[in-house]
Amino acid sequence: MRLQWPGPPVSFLTHFWRAMEPFLVKGTHPVMEKILNICQRVAVTDSTVLVAGESGTGKELIARFIHAHSRRSSNPFIAVNCGAIPPDLLESEMFGHERGAFTGAVGSRMGLFQLANGGTIFLDEIGEMTAALQVKLLRVLQEREIRPVGADRTIKVDVRVIAASNRDLATEVEKGRFREDLFYRLQVIPITVPPLRERRSDIPILVQHFLDKHNQQRPGQLVRIAEDAMVHLWEYDWPGNVRELENLIERMVILSEDGTIRVDSLPPNIRSFISDKKIPRPTLTDEGIDLNQAVEEFEYRLIDEALRRTKGNKQAAARLLGLKRTTLVAKLRRKGTGSAQGYVI
Amino acid sequence: MNSAAGNNAAQAKGRILVVDDDPNAVEILSRMLGREGYTCVSASSGASGLDALKSELVDVILLDVMMPEMDGLEVCERLRADEKLRRIPVILLTAKDDMETRSRGMALGVSEYLTKPINRRELFTRIDAQLHARAIDRQLSKTAEAVADPSKKSS
Fold first, then answer.
1. Whole-angstrom distance, CA of residue A315 vs CA of residue A303
2. Of the candidates A198, A231, A342, which has its C-beta nearest B102's C-beta?
3. For a tag site, which of A113, A160, A220, A340 has the least CB within 10 Å?
4. Chain B residues with CB inside 8 Å of A188's CB?
5. Does one domain contain both A68 and A166?
6. Under a CB-based contact definition with an 8 Å cutoff, are residues A315 and A280 in contact?
């Protein structure tokens, strides 16, 4: 009896294509055009690539895109999250181990580098790697060979390395937490993906893309988005970037009752979004701070933002802040309006 | 046009074009941006703003929406239609917090939107976000060059 094959590998690639689309193909922001262009050109080479960007900006998709467009595409693509594997285990995960190399190593085991032979290995959160392992990785990049834990032999591997970090590795190097030589070895082709809030013009395009995608996955009613709800999404800062946006759209499509995403159906944190920047994040300097003044400023900013969101409706603003209307009015009277420091024109 | 403000700043953070018909607003913004280390260029109307862009290279445009003759949204439309200018990030400034303006701004590919009264901290953060994206863009251009030219590639 033949086992049911879920589908030809082509559909796998198509899936990645589709997944890459919103990040690279459909993005209109000039930065994203450039990234796509670089990825296409770099794919045909074997250069090491370092992808930087906040979490959720699509670093792994970029790696998969490069792999899918390279001559290695029919060989494995292996993703390793260096931050998710305990440091003690990471070395043997990456390079394998011999029988008896350490307690519990009952048999020898192949490492991910070996499994990725002929293909691409994606080392995510490379900044989390211990100093000892950084040295070993540098050796691998230079010599193109690995040494399994406890082995006295080395094994040649043909693997393209794509590394990624959500920390600024240049800063990590300055602080002495990341080896400079390894950094330069990895940074042959540096690609930085800007966070979504720095390329807001892509938000409406991404929203529409994910709506189409998730509508397609659930046949039945087509979910649309109301214009003002779209504006709210456009204004939100998306700390979790594209991943957060897609998760939200998927949830909205599933939960939608009448086929339209409205402002009311958005989660409260987006509906009454208060930008981080509007709320001062007080820092306690050596000179100390005036706590009362800091608290007052914090309070004022929140009140101001609530009033802005509710177009000056004090009742609604008070509700947003969990205050009684009279309390809000009293606070406003005490502070005077518009005279708070920080506001310019 | 005046580009005096900010010239004494030791290190320019970026060149900002301020377009506002209110001379007070231009004055305050220019001085504030200058003090913070940005180089500031200003224009008092949409038309003169577009004119200034013919000779000035700027990183970010702070654009008031409510202006006589050519309003901010129309300036945006013209910027978007111009191959050379369409990539400059625009931050819309407005007292008008209505959905229609925001929605039109969004459709025109505006980068940010700030409602007057403008908060200093927020203004600087929004400008810096756009400058950061520009810096990434420049770095990517270098990478693109390196990839195109195999002789510059080391591995």
1. 12
2. A231
3. A220
4. 153-155
5. yes
6. no
Residues A253, A139 within the same domain: no
Point out the domain boundary residue: A245, A271, A297: A271
| Structural domain ending residue among the three candidates A170, A194, A218 | A194
* Other Cβ atoms closer than 10 A to A88: 9
Closest residue by Cα to residue B61 from B94, B102, B92, B30: B92
Report the residue of chain A nearest B122, measured CA to CA: A277
Are A198 and B129 inside 8 Å of each other by CB?
yes
pLDDT at A278: 56
In a domain, A219, yes or no: yes
- B90-94 β-sheet, strand order: B39-43, B15-19, B60-64, B90-94, B112-115
- Contacting residues of B for A345, CB less than 8 Å apart: 22, 24-25, 28-29, 116-118
Domains identified in chain A, total number? 3
Could you give the CA distance from residue A222 to residue A260 in angstroms, rounded to a whole number?
Answer: 8
> For chain B, which domains are there?
15-122+129-149 (3.40.50.2300)
Quote the domain boundaries for residue A286: 278-335
Flag whether A126 is in a domain.
Answer: yes
Q: Do A176 and A79 lie in a common domain? A: yes
Domain-embedded: residue A118: yes
Instruction: Report the chain A residue with the minimal C-alpha distance to residue B109.
Output: A201
Pairing of strands A160-165, A49-52: parallel
Instruction: Report residue B53's pLDDT band, with 50, 70 and 90 as the boundaries.
Output: very high
The answer on pLDDT for B144 being more than 50 is yes
Lowest mean pLDDT among A107-121, A224-238, B88-102: B88-102
Restricting to B residues 54-93, those with a Cβ less than 8 Å away from any Cβ of A are 87
Chain B neighbours among A 279-298 (CB < 8 Å)? Answer: 280
Are residues A213 and A243 part of one domain? yes
Under 8 Å CB-to-CB from B81, ≥6 apart: which residues? none
Nearest to A278 among B122, B140, B148 (CB): B122
Strand pairing of B15-19 and B60-64? Answer: parallel
Q: In this complex, is the C-beta atom of B97 within 8 Å of any C-beta atom belonging to chain A?
A: yes
Q: Does any domain span residue A344?
A: no
